[in-house]
Amino acid sequence: MSYITDLQQYIESIPYGGIDVRVERANRKTVNIITTGEETMRYDPLKDGSTLEAAKDINDLIKRLVMTGHTGEAQIKLTMRDGKITLLSIFDKKETKYKG
Question: What is the pTM of this model?
Fold first, then answer.
């Protein structure tokens, strides 16, 4: 089943965070998989280069969404202190239909 492989790859692509998966049987031949992921990364504002590291992680996320052909929503939320990124949260939601 191709959706099992796709789910496994998606789960392995999130280094830390939460993933919600909803499976809907549309009919006897179609399964809808809805995934919602949240990935959170912390940065030490006292460490030099932490904001550059966060910017690199944002760029890597966008590349990953492009390379996997993501169709859905993606949101980036930054928590900052004194002009430096301390927390980066990434949310994405995707719905895929699989026909059997």
Answer: 0.69
